[in-house]
Amino acid sequence: QVLSLPIVVIVHGNQDNNAKATVLWDNAFSEIDRVPFVVAERVPWEKMCDTLNLKFMAEVQTTKGLLKEHYFFLAQKIFNDHSAGPEDFQSRSVSWAQFNKEILPGRGFTFWQWFDGVLDLTKRCLKSYWSDRLIVGFISKQYVCKLLSTEPDGTFLLRFSDSEIGGVTIAHVIRGQDGSSQVENIQPFSAKDLSIRSLGDRIRDLGQLRNLYPGTPKDQAFGSHYNSEWGRG
Asked: 209: which of 3, 16, 129, 131 is 20 to 30 A away, CA to CA?
């Protein structure tokens, strides 16, 4: 006999996501001397934050982990609570159902399915951008509008899509001649999109993007990520 890490046997690739969720939950939250297969149904949110951070850093192979503001956004998403402050979530517990059973409001997927999609996209296409802190990523569309609405025309930031699994979108402000502002979100880019043309080159292509929030010229922020083989057209 020998002890092993948790394993899950699947019969089809479409079960892979749920299997990974089961292994993660079991590996992170089971007790060493437990009754076999018994795992806590609820765990402290702070413990979940640590687990998501370790998983993110390990999968993406980056030293830049999640920040406090990222945890706040993730808490709002998993608890479906946009009225509580960051400190209000510290004493809460999150259930297995909230993690990977209940469908997120207005979506067709669970919290874990969404988070795993972010992991996969970042690992495959965005590692260097994340490691350079060029992607805010975990931030709500509503908060982005609040941040950008007072910024100069062409200010932008990057966030992970709420509506699609494994997508990154660019939010940017358009300021009219009368001083009014409008924040637009560009259609999310998937891993397939970014394998055809990189995120850096797409940002260079988009003339309406000028400064990465809060005020770094885009060529200064993303210049090292431009592909020199592409013409500047």
From this structure: 131
Q: Which domain holds residue 166?
A: 13-225
User: Does residue 103 fall inside a structural domain?
Assistant: yes
Cα separation of the two ends of the chain:
64
Residue 103's identity, in one-letter code, is: I
Structure tokens at 89: 């979530």
Tell me which amino acid residue 140 is: S
The H or E element containing residue 211 is: strand 211-212
Q: What is the pTM of this model?
A: 0.86
| CB atoms near residue 87 (< 10 Å) | 8
Digit-coded pLDDT (tens) for 150-206: 999 999 999 999 989 999 999 999 988 787 889 999 999 999 999 999 999 999 999
CATH assignment of the domain containing 96 = 1.10.238.10
In a domain, 4, yes or no: no
Question: Residues 193, 205: contact at Cβ < 8 Å?
Answer: no
Task: Report if residue 126 sits inside a domain.
Answer: yes
Could you tell me the two tokens for 22?
Answer: 């089961």
Residues in the chain: 233
